[in-house]
Amino acid sequence: MAHISLKQILVVGMLITVWTFGLNVNRINGGGSIVYVDFNVPGDVVPLDLVRTYNSVTAVNEASGWNGAFGWGWTSDFESVLTVTPDRSVVLRDGQSGNTVIFQAVKDDPKAKEAFFAQVKKAYLARKLGKEPTEAELKKFSLPSDFMAKLKSDSQFRIQMAVAYDIPGEIPKGELLVSTQYGYQTIQFQNNQWIRRRDGNTHVFDQKGRLIRQEDRNGYYLEYKYDPGKLKLKEISARNQSANLKFTWQNNRVSTITDSQGRMARYEYDTRGNLVRVDDSNGQTYEYLYKNERFPHLLTRINYPSESKGSQAVYRELYYDSQGLVASHRDKDGSITEFTYGKKPNDPANNFWTKTVFKNKQSIQDPDERYEEFFLKARPDGSRYLYKQVSRSSRRVGNKRETSSETILFTECCGKPSQIVRGGQTTKFKYYPNGLLKEKVGPRESVAIEYEPKFMKVSKVVKNGVTSVFQYDNRGNLVKAVEGKKFVGLKYDKQGRIQEMSDTNGGQIKFQYGNQGKPVLIEQRGVGTIQISYNPAGGIARTETLLNGKSNRKPSAMESKRIVRQVMGSFQTLLDIIRPAAQVNKALPLAWKVVEK
Description:
Elements: H1 6-12, E1 24-26, E2 31-41, E3 48-55, E4 67-68, E5 71-72, E6 74-76, E7 81-84, E8 90-93, E9 100-105, H2 110-129, H3 135-140, H4 145-153, H5 155-164, E10 177-179, E11 185-190, E12 193-198, E13 201-205, E14 211-215, E15 221-226, E16 233-238, E17 244-250, E18 253-259, E19 264-269, E20 275-279, E21 285-289, E22 301-303, E23 315-320, E24 326-330, E25 336-343, E26 351-359, E27 369-378, E28 384-397, E29 400-410, E30 417-422, E31 425-431, E32 437-441, E33 446-451, E34 458-463, E35 466-472, E36 478-483, E37 486-492, E38 498-503, E39 508-513, E40 519-524, E41 528-534, E42 540-547, H6 557-584
Antiparallel strand pairs: 1-2, 2-3, 3-6, 4-5, 7-8, 8-9, 9-10, 10-11, 11-12, 12-13, 13-14, 14-15, 15-16, 16-17, 17-18, 18-19, 19-20, 20-21, 21-22, 22-23, 23-24, 24-25, 25-26, 26-27, 27-28, 28-29, 29-30, 30-31, 31-32, 32-33, 33-34, 34-35, 35-36, 36-37, 37-38, 38-39, 39-40, 40-41, 41-42
Helix pairs in contact: 4-5
């Protein structure tokens, strides 16, 4: 049984967002991305975060790249925007991930497409003639056959043509549009607003496509306020104004952000619009350099002066190839990873590869090199998807070279694995029509999953003959988990925070929360109490244990360890029971993420 720490116990009782600080390279498109959290403001239920993400793919080309509030290539959650296409689809650019999500009707509308084709034809001919075409000219004219074929089959091309010819889309009012690209989610136009729903969370956009509200299943929300008639964000505020962030702008860039505690972050830019320096709310400084002459918005070096000591500079560096793909990354610890890319001559558009070499690596468990080959296929609408990935890795152990291989097949609809062959052993996956996992069968496990209909959360898991059952309240919070003869029951307060937990052995744990929305007291019946205090920034300042019935006597060090150990044991039982659901899907509320920084 794995052990969990007191910090992990605290996480179960509240919502904590933890981000991995490191640079990731997408080996399919050669893009490098890195995430920063400039603010983590304590609120009455959950903290208000401001997350900033750089993605080199969106900084290569000024024509198609992202020139956002924090400069070229940088994006943030509040920059999520959506547009309507003439074929009645909705395109969402997710500010947090940088992904483009396409929502479409369950059934295609051929009339809408034909009307769009006619608009493109008219705009195409007008541009060709340099004037508005007459009805007679339109009747005689036909679009080039290859152009028309692509227009009919490729949804991405239709979006590009709508933008190129400035053809507005008609809002599909009341119609439910669906996407399964990054998990099942829907969007619908209601009461002059766009409502996006995913995993029990709701995003609301106004008619201009601006994000104006986020709300979780328990009613906790963030509101976004803009300058009148503009896309410039003025303020993000949490419910009851328990936390807020206020923005100032200069030359269409964010220049400062101030939180409700008076902490400030400052942002500086060069003459090309690149972000070059950040002083965040925690007093950390980051310097960004862009020294690639061919691609002036590609990030080439990050300095960490707050972490540097004397002449020991802490930094990371990036080099790119002639196409703007990441060719080399020098991490903060000095390790270097190199990337080379290629295309298969017989089908370069759909069959390509990436080779990764790990130099002066810090862990002997890492491979020395990895070769990955990718295969794309076309969907019926002409868009392409990754349907197969073949990987081969090798590393030297003593005088021997160890090799391993893996082949993954992906589904057409959702980009999820349908089969994984690793080390000669095969694991197969089946999915429901909405993209949720239905079955997983491998050499050492057989898993079948069922979901409740309201929130599409895991309701039943049968793993190797052992059945786990999960029940939820009307807000989607897990209230009971049963595995064989073991069970855990949970009660929540109005904010969706765990108030009480009981288990098979009669154990009971109660929580009390402070004005920062974090647990200040955890009490286990018959065992003892853990008291927690926090500093103004929300960090743990002090913990203290008390014996039940002996609050006037401070327990010994041994007794304190026993109290914490028994409380941790109860939480471990909970984690063991809910693990099957957590592994197959995001079955649990966000407040249940158990992570270590």
